[in-house]
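User: quick one - fold this with N-(iminomethyl)-L-glutamic acid bound?
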Amino acid sequence: MLLLKGAAQVASPPASDSPLAGDAMGRIELHTRSDVAIRNGRIVEVGRKLDYPDAETIDARGKVVVPGFVDPHTHLVWAGSREHELEWKLQGRSYQDILADGGGILRTVRETRAADEEELREQSLKRLRNATRTGTTTIEVKSGYGLQREEELKQLRVARWLGEQGLAEVVSTFMGAHALPDDTSRAEYLEQLEQMLPDAAELAEYCDVFCEEGAFTVDESRRLLEAAREAGMGLRIHADEFGDSGGGTLGAELSVASADHLAGSTLDTIEALRDAGTTGILLPGTPLALLSSEFAPARKMVAAGLPLALATDCNPNCYTESMQMVMQLAVFRMGLMPAEALTAATLNGALALGRSNRGAIAPGWRADLLVCDVPDYRHLTYHFGINHVETVIIGGRVVNA
Ligand code: NIG
Ligand code: FE
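Assistant: Sure. Structure tokens for the protein plus N-(iminomethyl)-L-glutamic acid:
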């Protein structure tokens, strides 16, 4: 039994089993000067002056308790780094030029293949600790730096191992369709991808495809995602990162769990995704790291009623594990209100990962909670650039990452 005592605010989206959209995204429930009681990994109650004499207590006076952050889109498992590419970008080279020249994803593929499983675990664990320390309690992790069967499975095994470390809970996604390898023909790789699906489905809950010019076409993406669905996997898509290239529309056609990026999506695509029951996952770190000001049209999406979640996209191009940073970018660069950003970083992300027991603070819900050293939840975005998380609780356990 654990009792969080006397929080200035307990702030949470309302418990819901469907993602919040439109005005509901901004309707945070606030309990002032309140306690949160936790037993057997679950929230028991929220209220003033709760009386549990035997409980271990955490003093939350003057602080804010929010649900643990859910990061529903990362490429956390990789080896090496690409700091030199930041300089190239500053000199005017585009992300796609760098990829076409064998850099970008392909560079990380070479470094990830060269690392043995132990090295890959070690490098990735460091990032998982950073994520947990900055408040992420559930994290999606994609493969996609192997681009051949054994190497993709190696990444997925590392993701599974990460999930066993008592840090943020890991949800795995197979993303062999992240780029076309430079050592296999297009047709051959597409065939290999379909052959990988049964084994990938043993290790990964979802399948994702980078549907974009320079990566996979709409038809290739459709074929692969349909095969993944046959193999029992849930579906996600990287879509419309650089313009409305048909990826978002395909996501709607297939009713994928989430369509991610959407920086270039048109209103028609946004409405189609809404009607398909898909959540839009926005990744404002990505345009930031691309030195672009083309952020996803979040206000248009909220107005259209598309439920939004936020994610880091943590990868060697966009290198942050911090959901606080992402919420701040969402507020400062996409116009989300602090309350909307909190909903997008918690409940909506959890539901986009098919987890309907977390992301809100309510009786019976999983006790994934953060005690933040701020006087008001809005300081999570207003006061930017530092880690506000003081205590991380995952499944009712205090985690020291
Ligand atoms: O989501 N766009 C494709 N994949 C990643 C980038 C991965 C990389 O550059 O290594 C993304 O932005
Ligand atoms: Fe991504």
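One thing worth noting: The radius of gyration is 20 Å.
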